[in-house]
Amino acid sequence: xxxxxxxxxxxxxxxxxxxxxxxxxxxxxxxxxxxxxxxxxxxxxxxxxxxxxxxxxxxxxxxxxxxxxxxxxxxxxxxxxxxxxxxxxxxxxxxxxxxxxxxxxx
Length: 106
Prior knowledge:
elongated, mainly alpha
């Protein structure tokens, strides 16, 4: 295989390749710079936190909606057959905690 380029063409190719290598080395230097690496890591962490927080929000919102559906009818009126027993349970728990706290103080 013979090279039919002139010495001037070969020299121009070498200069062009050097310029390309210089650009690539500059890009590598920027990518490997500690500030760039920290910025990339922060962006990945922020993205992961945003996704996780979004999923948590959806799960909590779904749970709240499910619980609300247990105590509120579709027309928006309270389901007293479920609200009253739940209120009694909460009131009993508060009363037990209050009595227990008073006994510990004595």
